[in-house]
Amino acid sequence: MAVDTAGVGNGAMASAASARARVLASRRVRFGAGGLAVASALAAGDWLLSQWSPLAAELVTFVVGAVVLVGVGIRIGRRIDALERSSREDPMTCVGNRRHWEASLRQEVDRALRSRMPLSVLMVDLDNLKLLNDAHGHGCGDRALALVGQVLRDTCRSRDVAARFGGDEFAVLLPRTRISEAKIVAERIRSELARRRALLGAPFDSHVSVSIGIADLDAVPVAGRSSDAATADLLFESADCALYTAKSRGRDRIESIEVPCISGVIRLDEHRAGRKGRVSA
């Protein structure tokens, strides 16, 4: 006997929509009832105090009204903060989402070019996610993604921007970081994930690993820097190319694109040493 899967799917979606509508209606009722209760209490208190002293009634009404408005303002502020956070955060991994990362990338590229400071990008790919989903279910794959997000949050520095770029791909923006330093951060991410997957046991210990590609501003040709947006795109593409190399060479490894310095980035150690006469002209 054939099963009407389309009908089942439509019924499930209709049921979910109905449930959401009931929740919203319940919230509206509670909000309306709360407002009515507050208004009733204020009216009753105002009448009782007016029997004793009109001035006291006005003062109490003002104080209570101010307290209510402050409370409402705090609640609205918290809701706005939560909405802002959800607009730039990936809910599964609790790192930034693609929109937040792309905005941060262009901002940091602009800052790096203006200040002539280094900037590096890591492209991080969760190896074997499809295999993990097929063999052990999508719940297991979701746990693997959440684990990568946790490792990124714990190993990246406060100024770094980690984000889930989509599917099994993550990206990390490393401001004021040369490629040699970016390699240290990348290895810290890779080794920490290896340590934690071993603690979790099967199937994570044999399936969960990351390949990482690294690039910095030196990998972007000067001719391609027609704008901040173009420079950001080329920087991302360079890191993605390094990631492809890491995947093709066996996964669970780090690859980078290194070219001679052509960007005019200030090398702080050499700059300071040069000012002290330790580096010859």
Description:
There is one protein chain. The chain has 281 residues and is of the alpha+beta class. The chain has two domains: 12-88; 98-264, Alpha-Beta Plaits (2-Layer Sandwich). The chain is built from nine helices and five strands. It has helices at 5-52, 54-88, 98-115, 129-136, 138-155, 179-200, 204-207, 228-248, 268-275; strands at 119-126, 161-166, 169-175, 210-216, 254-256. A five-stranded mixed sheet has the order 2-3-1-4-5, sandwiched between helices. Helix 3 (98-115) packs across helix 8. The longest helix has 48 residues, at 5-52. The protein is elongated, with a radius of gyration of 28 Å. The N and C termini lie far apart (85 Å).
Total E-strand runs: 5
Biggest sheet features? 5 strands, mixed
Count of runs of 4 or more consecutive helical residues: 9
Overall geometric form: elongated
Mean pLDDT metric: 77
The span between the termini is: 85 Å
The unreliable regions are: 1-10, 260-281
CATH hierarchy: architecture of the largest domain = 2-Layer Sandwich
Measured by DSSP, the beta-strand proportion falls in 5-15%
Q: What is the CATH level 1 assignment of the largest domain?
A: Alpha Beta
Fraction of residues in helix: 55-70%
SSE series: HHHEHHEEHHEHEH
Q: Determine the CATH superfamily of the largest domain.
A: Reverse transcriptase/Diguanylate cyclase domain
**Strands ordered across the widest β-sheet:** 2-3-1-4-5
Please give the domain count: 2
Radius of gyration in whole Å, from Cα?
28 Å
The structural class is: alpha+beta
CATH names the topology of the largest domain as Alpha-Beta Plaits
